[in-house]
Amino acid sequence: MDFELTADQREIQALARDFAEAEIIPNAADWDREHRFPEELFPKLAHLGLMGACVPEEYGGAGADFLSYILVLEELSRADAGVGVTVAVHTSATTLPILVFGTEDQKARFVPPLARGEQIGAFALTESGSGSDAGALRTRAEPDDHGWVISGSKQWITNGSVAGTFVLFARTDAATSGARGVSCFVLDPEHVRITREEEKLGLNSSTTSDLALEGAHVGRDRLLHEEGRGFRVAMATLDGGRIGIAAQALGIAQAAYDVAREYALQREQFGRRIADFQAIQWKLADMATEIDAARLLVYRAAWRKQQGLPHTTEGAKAKLFASEMARRQTAEAIQVLGGYGYTKEFPVERFYRDAKITEIYEGTSEIQRLVIARSILGRQIREEPAPVPR
Ligand code: CAA
Predict the structure, then answer these.
(1) Is residue 40 annotated as part of the catalytic site, yes or no?
(2) Interior CA angle at 198 toward 192 and 204, to 5°?
(3) Which of 197, 324, 362, 383 is an active site residue?
(4) Which residue's CA is the nearest one to ligand 1's atom 5?
(5) Looking at the structure, do residues 148 and 87 belong to the same domain, yes or no?
């Protein structure tokens, strides 16, 4: 067992960290306050290869491994979690499923503009009535002579209003309910209309939109994977995506810890630095320990994915632990800073707001526990409510 990063992984980690320190950290508070998507940032990330870090070079990417990409997400999220989620959804949830499930033609056509950062990607699964129960989606793809006509709506789509490519799920078989009968499509912005921009608790530098599909005509070349097998595409995509969100949570927690540690070494009360008090030492010790534990879970899940090993459960564990840890420890960081932590003079209140979503999107903590429980207990566990005794 080797816990060291390779030289290449350390190099891309340093590249992302240097970029984040120079280009993101100085601006993150303004983007948050102004609720501004920093569109000027992404061409710069693309220039460094970070919009396609783990995409093979032949498809326009940097050709790094999946763990390297996870390190990039951690570093970007440490600076600004909104930038982190933009890159995470663009890469894990849009570019990678096309790479994994696309035909040669689809890969050659759709992946390079994404991997080179000429376009941003979005993943459109969720609808108003289908969040955790993703298989209940109602957007309909009706067959016609050339392909399908898609109608319906999507909700809370990260990157929706800035995307050049959408991976979108719709029901091709109206007779089937649930996960069966769902298919996956690769769409252009012309196929969708943005109906609303969401206001959020945090992640204010990322965009989250509602979309309408109003009889969008799409050809057969837009079907990703087999007809009726789209739900598997969604689930396999989320298996990897959840590792990215876990890395985002890890980056946010690390940022909060860094500020809390520095503050504790400076701030004096009762004639001593607060770091000299055991009450503060124990908080920092717990933070450091939990961040370390999350990092091990996240890197293990990423390593398993890049080895081609099953990683559904490991990704769910990493996301569950890292996200709940980030929520807990960003709150502790505010506590270390006291009144200052509650103000915008320090970034920890932003970290706290940004951390919360990591327990919700790409599967809530409850869904992660369900995935883990199924792997522990098998699918024979009774999932229907027990009949009420009469
Ligand atoms: N990989 C491949 N296939 C999988 C799979 C996996 N990990 N998990 C399930 N499947 C397949 C099953 O084998 C089954 O296939 P068959 O019908 O061919 O047998 C099919 O998918 C249905 O599986 P289930 O019976 O397990 O489906 P379910 O209805 O019980 O739902 C669930 C499972 C885990 C609850 C799923 O609905 C789920 O993950 N829900 C959460 C949705 C979610 O994470 N949404 C995130 C939105 S995107 C986002 O947040 C992006 C962003 O902005 C940051």
Answers:
(1) no
(2) 120
(3) 362
(4) 235
(5) no
189: number of Cβ within 10 Å: 17
Based on the domain organization, do 193 and 257 belong to the same domain?
A: no
Ligand 1, residues 180, 235, 360: which to mutate, most atoms within 8 A of Cβ?
235
* Residue 205 and residue 335 in one domain: no
Q: Nearest C-alpha to atom 40 of ligand 1 is from which residue?
A: 132
Pairwise CA distance, residues 87 & 270, whole Å? 45
Mutational test site, ligand 1, from 231, 314, 358, 369, max ligand atoms within 8 Å of CB: 231
Tokens 């009360």 belong to 269
286/375 same-domain check:
yes
Report pLDDT for 37.
98
Query: What is the C-alpha to C-alpha distance for residues 152 and 174, in angstroms, rounded to an integer?
Result: 13
Q: Are 108 and 230 in contact (CB under 8 A)?
A: no
Residue 177 CB–ligand 1 contact under 6 Å? no
Domain encompassing residue 200: 122-229
pTM over 0.90: yes
Residue 246, Cβ neighbours under 10 Å: how many?
35
Give the Å distance between the CA of 310 and the centre of ligand 1.
Answer: 15
Q: What's the CATH code of the domain at 87? A: 1.10.540.10
> How many Å apart are CA 129 and CA 259, to the nearest integer?
40
Enumerate helices (H) and strands (E) in the chain, giving the number of each.
12, 10
Q: Tens digit of pLDDT for each residue in 94-126?
A: 999 999 999 999 999 999 999 999 999 999 999
The predicted pLDDT at position 21 comes to: 98
Mind listing the pLDDT tens digit for each residue in 15-60? 999 999 999 999 999 999 999 999 999 999 999 999 999 999 999 9
Question: From the alpha carbon of 361, which atom of ligand 1 is closest?
Answer: 50
What CA–CA distance (Å, rounded) separates 102 from 104?
Answer: 6
Q: Is the pLDDT of residue 385 over 60?
A: no
Within a domain: residue 357?
Answer: yes
Q: Which atom of ligand 1 is least distant from the CA of 178?
A: 29
Contact (CB, 8 A) for 155 and 128: yes
Residues 95 and 152 reside in one and the same domain: no
